[in-house]
Amino acid sequence: MTVEERLVEVRHRIEAAEREAGRTPGSTTLVAVSKTFDADAIRPVIAAGQRIFGENRVQESQAKWPELKAETPGIQLHLIGPLQSNKAADAVALFDVIETVDREKIARALAEEMTRQARHPKLYVQVNIGMEPQKAGIEPKQTVAFVDFCRRELELEIEGLMCIPPAEGNPGPYFALLAKLADECGLQKLSMGMSGDFEIAIGMGATSVRVGSAIFGHR
Ligand SMILES: *Cc1c(COP(=O)(O)O)cnc(C)c1O
User: Fold this and answer.
1) Ligand 1: residues whose CB is within 6 Å?
2) Cα–Cα distance between 27 and 209 in angstroms, integer?
3) Which pTM does this prediction carry?
4) What is the pLDDT of residue 71?
5) How does pLDDT run across 156-206, given as a tens digit for each residue?
6) What distance in angstroms lies between residue 80's CA and the mean position of ligand 1's atoms?
7) Cα-based angle 25, 31, 32 (whole degrees, multiple of 5)
8) Do 216 and 192 meet the contact criterion of CB atoms below 8 Å apart?
9) Whose CA is closest to 64, among 98, 36, 100?
10) Could you tell me if 101 and 125 are in contact, meaning their C-beta atoms sit under 8 angstroms apart?
């Protein structure tokens, strides 16, 4: 299969999962995760109509996306990888959505940069939903307080929550927990589901799925 065919196939699977869940077809945003692929590998996916992409590294993104964004209007770039505060300025300048706000220090750095640059990427809080030591994200039980802190102290608008469930086992309960936390925070957006589990995530209310290898192939 070509990358265009895989993109079409993923779109069909998303729509089937939406119908299966009794949701409106088209209610899930597809974020095509292009990390590790270069501009030449990404161009056919843009040509096939995809406009929303995810990357996990700021520096790697700076090497390819300014050019790709200049070529095609309407590209939306999501940062889905961990962010260091010394990269906050670059992230605010390049990304349209930052999905990995997960601690006070980075939230403060983003708030400062957004004011300085008068640029306001949308923000998601990343939750370490399986409480895995090797993963980034705020603890589930601290999520409500952290979202509250971002809103009150920093006057940041938080769009939704994001998670990466543990690699092993059924992700369903983790997706359900993220949905419950979002509800407690009064948030409508849920970024959850990857190549291996996006249909389950859609069934549990994902509003966006981050799909890499099912579109671009193996990394
Ligand atoms: C790489 C990555 C994805 C995409 O993973 P695939 O399994 O290739 O679909 C999604 N989310 C995050 C945070 C990632 O780093």
Assistant:
1) 33, 35, 56, 80-81, 164, 194-196, 210-214
2) 11
3) 0.98
4) 97
5) 999 999 999 999 999 999 999 999 999 999 999 999 999 999 999 999 999
6) 8
7) 115
8) no
9) 36
10) yes
